[in-house]
Design a protein that fits this description.
Strand content: under 5%
Shape: elongated
Keywords: Membrane, Transmembrane, Transmembrane helix
Radius of gyration: 16 Å
Number of helices: 3
Order of helices and strands: HHH
Distance between the termini: 6 Å
Structural class: mainly alpha
Number of domains: 1
Largest sheet: none
Number of strands: 0
Oligomer: single chain
Pfam families: CCB3_YggT (PF02325)
Protein name: YggT family protein
Length: 97
């Protein structure tokens, strides 16, 4: 029962992080194509907050991955890594419950 509860908590937190990564990606595209403007205080505040949340997780991935200047693949690597962790923890929770 304890493992199932821990799994649910970890699953929920990973889902939140995945959502934040996707929001940052979409906002980055909107900024890059001038759909939204960084001079807008709300957009700037949201962009700064998203980067502050995700940068500690993305920085180690960026150090390991090769530099692909125009495209940053570190969010995709983070999504893949978190999904793998989600699968592993889910299987462990089912095995011990």
């Amino acid at each position: 029962m304890l493992f199932l509860t821990l799994y649910q908590i970890i699953d929920y937190l990973i889902s939140i992080i995945l959502f934040v990564v996707i929001v940052q990606f979409v906002l980055g595209l909107l900024i890059a194509f001038n759909v939204v403007n960084m001079h807008n205080q709300f957009v700037s505040a949201v962009w700064t907050a998203l980067n502050a949340i995700l940068e500690p997780m993305l920085r180690p991935i960026r150090r390991i991955m090769p530099n692909t200047s125009p495209i940053d693949f570190s969010p995709m690597a983070l999504i893949i890594g978190l999904t793998i962790v989600q699968i592993i923890v889910g299987n462990l929770a089912r095995a011990y419950s």
